[in-house]
Amino acid sequence: MNRYWNEYQKTIADDHYFYERSCIRQTFFPGSETAFLRILREELGKDIFDDFRQHTCTGIGYHADIVPFETTMTVCARLFSLMTEHGYKNYVPSCVTSFGVFTEVLHTWQEHPELLEKTRENLYKATGREFEIPENLVHPSDIIYKFREELAGKMKYRLVNSFTGKPLKVVEHIGCHYAKIFPDKGVGKAEFPYVLAGMIESWGGEVVDYPERRHCCGFGFRQYLIQENRGYSISNTKKKLESMEPYEPDFIVTNCPGCTLFLDRWQYTIAEMEHKTYDKDGYGIPVLTYEEMAGLLLGYNPWELGLQIHQVQADHLLDKIGIEYNINDKYKGVSGTIFRKPEKPTILQV
Amino acid sequence: MKDFGFAIEKPRALDLDKADRNLYVRLLKREPSFARCFQCGMCSATCSARNFTDYNIRRIHTLMRQGQTQELDAMLQKCMLCGKCTLVCPRGVNLRHLIIQMRKLLNNE
User: Fold this and answer.
1) The domain spanning residue A252 has which CATH number?
2) What ipTM does this complex have?
3) Å from B16 to nearest chain A CA?
């Protein structure tokens, strides 16, 4: 490996992870986290602990200026105390915003040890709990990236168009809180983020390098939380979609729950507001999480991965990759009940 | 169209690939010395109109090159055609003639 590229790598623990789930991923893309745990346990044979007592990291409230940083530090400390209680040292937050928050908290404690002591005191007084600082803090995508070649060997499909034999054109979006807040904490740092691009290249796809590749997805917390401000959010997303449109990407893969949500849902809103869709057939560009992408290639059932919950439907993408699926199971629940089909949008095709 | 309670703003970014440079190309034919301008700003620094108004020759040049010609006519009316800019230009651009030609082109002459 090029010695300069070595400087752009990060330490990713090999095994024994403590998993922390994301608030919004569990709601919007619940199949992703389940798929991640399944990939780690069944495909890679790793030990990962998922504690039912976990809670928010306060990320959304913190970035919306509702939760003060002292509270955030104490809440994060409680999560670390759960990790300590179970004897783990490698912390894996599912959400990119959580990853950013934890990195910020750890960096603050490193620079200001008195705040660490204050947080220990606050946590002990509030809950009687104690904690150790994690030895390794990584995002789940870092782990998938680390074992991407091993996973490639187990995959049933590749990111190749089964009709033409050409690599699929994939847009990757790493999320601002992954490496823009603390540039050295991401694979490839902020300059050459490679965490998703590495997966795409190893699994047979082609990364699309378009002008607004590093632009924000439009989430921006404060811009979205108040309805009147959502124009800022959707304008951001539109800028990105317009920039990638000429390259005709087959799908978008994202690192962050907010990015998945906004790049996906705003396509519906833009279609309703401006009658504009970003693929030539009017279906929109499917947006997948990296776990969904990995799960699909490993041959997992797309409906168990939760692809039917996305706004832009991925049926055409599944056909392109050559994935076998039963369309009658699309809205079938775990108990076998068929749920009511969602209402169709007026512009966006499904 | 549905109303969601917010609007989509147009981006302020300029797509130069889509800019209409037709007027700029025609202007270059009428005053070829314009191609020598390297945007030093001496013309704006010495401009009498610039001292009292927001008239800015360098900005006008930039807008012309980028094809943003909507507001140029009103801007150019502030020029008094004194010619000081032509005297100070280190690249020998005939600015006085350039401005006259810009006005004519913008009025389809």
Assistant:
1) 3.40.50.11810
2) 0.80
3) 13
